[in-house]
Amino acid sequence: MSYNIQRVLIVDDDPIQCITLKIQLQTFGIDNVRVAQSSKQGLAICEQQEIDLVFCDLSMPGEDGLTFLNALKKQNFQGKLCLLSGHDKSIIALAEMMCRQLGFVMVSSQMKPISNTDLASVLHSAIEAVPSPKVSDKVIEFLRSDLDSAFDSHRLVNFYQPQCRFANDTQSGNEVLIRWDHPQYGYISPMAFLPIIDKEQWHVRLFFYVLEQALEDHRSGKLSGSISVNAALANFGDSNFAFQVLECCERYDFSPQNLIIEMTEMEVYKHNPTMFENFARLRLNDVELAIDDFGAGYSSLIKLADLPFTEMKIDRALITSCHRDKRKNAILSLVVSMAKQLDMRLVAEGVEDNETWAHLQSMGIDLCQGYFTGRPQPIEYKLMA
Rounded to two decimals, what is the model's pTM? Predict the structure, then answer.
């Protein structure tokens, strides 16, 4: 498999760990790997060249990994990050929270030594974490005019990622993930152009562009099962939103009960009366509502009990290495129990390997979504599968 990670830096004072990880990366086709055995060396390398992914050990003599990370952020580092440590997982979790507050794009945190399976998961996450490195801040304004025309020229492409039942390993439906097929930069992650969507207030435009494309693919027989589409808070602030969704379903002869609209946990709690009205109207017409990235924000369980969500998608941060992490496993057990009590379907996001699949299956989680059961693909690739 080819990974869109070209330049990697390992910051670790242990030469054996550095050599081992470098060899592992080479087995994944990544040959441009620099090694720094101190914070000072690592910062110098990052000043000299653009780095796509940094593996950083937290415990180093002199200036530790935490000092390095603070200094790295001051250099305006735009790459991805993976924390490595042999210390207690709770310490790694604190460092990860620090990095999130600093504004890093957090890819992963792993115990040392990192296995090939976990390394593959880190590389998968790194691909999805941020926009393509070809796209810089300098071209954002240029992309704005391009994005406007991309709607009309249908350069925005739906990618579909399957959701599979743990009970019998059959597919239940697909989540729609939008990509921009740019003529110069290739496929661009939505993380690159969502700021433009926000600035131009094109949320409604984007949502119905994605929805209608998915419904057309379903009507033509290219898709089957349920369809999950992401919506922003701004969508639910439009008093006509639910009416428009239902009109689309009728126009494409699609049953509303097979449509799932996802909203992130962090946005769920930003209440307004119009949002409640849309929630109620959608549920009255059997459209399902999913709370996305559950476990990534600051959950209010009382508010969750009051909202009409039918599906809970567990954030990949809780799923990764859950079968080896007692703390994550304890939290997952509580989430599973709570969801069942609330009659909510559970979807595990970011499932990357058989061990994780088997563990989540034993916990009674309903659906799996991740590279283990299928990568996001445009419709033409799904038809060839």
Answer: 0.70
